[in-house]
Specification:
The protein is α+β, with helices and mostly antiparallel strands. The protein has 10 helices and 6 strands, in the order ααααααββαββββααα. Helix 4 packs across helix 9, helix 5 crosses helix 6 and helix 6 packs across helix 9. The structure holds a DNA duplex.
DNA sequence: AAGTCCTCCAACCGCCAAATC
DNA sequence: CGATTTGGCGGTTGGAGGACT
């Protein structure tokens, strides 16, 4: 037996709510409450609406203290940080933003904030040349960081396997000569833009792609007392035989909490425009929207969402804890 | 002025898990 | 303990209105 419909679809009104309907619903709930039963509520309130529709109207529009209008910069940061840590869990985000509804946040993200992040991603100067052979991420495989020496001055335990993140993702190959041939070190303080020009440009012998200097690969490195965040962004552009341009970029980001010997968010993605047969060669992975969202998460995780990386990261850590409380207690 | 495209957001849909029968 | 009901959630849609041609 299939599931019964929540209401008589033929006898309920759909579409925008009239002021009269709003008034009836508001008056009823303010007088009687919801009674713990949204399905029965519309009949009692004299509304020809589905109970679910009433609930949504109340929660998203009619209930007291709903905040409408522009999102503030602070709210942007909260959304960015939470998106980076928990993804599209709009109801949890709404719990962190008094007066905002999950629907509001979802709409705001989908229509404005996501584009803002994508624009930042495309225009960020550190998306430059690359590129190294990628291999599909396999959660049963123990991966290592691209070059052990990169982390020689850091607190990262390079011998521990990377943990898997969600959904389709890719890791940089550990066979990349342009990484392995360099002696790299994490700077004691975050790399500044001025540093970019002081480091060697790498050449990938097999594909002729220009690489980038090791230090700039680790812009956004934040080595605080408890947390290390690192990011890698790379890109290339080449001409195809048919005259079209082939643009590619890939990125990786990670967070390492050495209080708990815990790594998370290690993930890479790879995106291409105008390519043809490179996929078969394993040069890049997912080019779907999911990939873009992953990139946005990486972007946020590294440094672009806030002008103050310290504050942003502190917030990031605290909010993650708060989310855990909400979810499990 | 008219047609088309784009953006925004309220509302709907379908799935899932918890509660209830 | 399985079936059914309900609430809650995230994804998606459709229409209104503004921008552009």
């Amino acid at each position: 037996m299939g599931r019964a419909p929540c209401c008589d679809k033929a006898n309920v009104k759909k579409g925008p709510w009239s002021p009269e309907e709003d008034r009836k619903l508001k008056d009823y709930i303010e007088t009687h409450g919801t009674g713990g039963n949204w399905i029965a509520l519309p009949q009692k309130a004299g509304l020809r609406r589905c109970g679910k529709s009433c609930r949504l109207r109340w929660l998203n529009y009619l209930r007291p203290n709903i905040k409408h209008g522009e999102f503030s910069d602070d709210e942007d940061k909260v959304i960015c940080a939470l998106f980076a840590s928990i993804g599209s869990r709009w109801s949890i985000m709404a719990a962190q933003l008094p007066g905002r509804t999950d629907n509001d946040i979802k709409n705001y993200w989908n229509t404005k904030l996501k584009k803002k992040m994508m624009n930042s991603l495309i225009s960020m100067p550190e998306i430059r040349k690359p590129l190294h052979r990628l291999q599909p991420f396999n959660s049963s495989t123990n991966y290592s960081y691209p070059s052990l020496s990169i982390f020689q001055n850091s607190n990262i335990n390079v011998n521990a396997p990377l943990s898997s993140s969600s959904s389709p993702s890719y890791l940089y190959s550990t066979n990349t000569s342009s990484y392995h041939d360099q002696t790299l070190s994490i700077p004691s303080s975050p790399t500044t833009n001025a540093d970019h020009h002081q480091h060697p440009v790498l050449q990938s012998q097999d594909h002729g792609y220009l690489g980038m200097g090791p230090m700039e690969s680790y812009q956004g490195v934040k080595d605080g007392p408890n947390l290390v965040v690192f990011g890698v962004d790379q890109a290339s552009c080449s001409s195809n035989s048919d005259g079209s341009c082939h643009y590619e970029y890939g990125s990786a980001a990670g967070v390492y909490d050495h209080r708990n010997n815990l790594r998370n968010l290690q993930r890479d993605s790879y995106k291409e425009f105008g390519g043809n047969d490179d996929k078969e060669k394993g040069y890049y992975g997912d080019s779907s929207l999911d990939s873009s969202l992953e990139e946005i998460k990486q972007l946020i995780s590294t440094n672009l969402c806030s002008s103050n990386i310290d504050n942003n990261l502190n917030f990031f850590v605290d909010e993650t804890k708060e989310v855990e409380k909400i979810m499990y207690y």
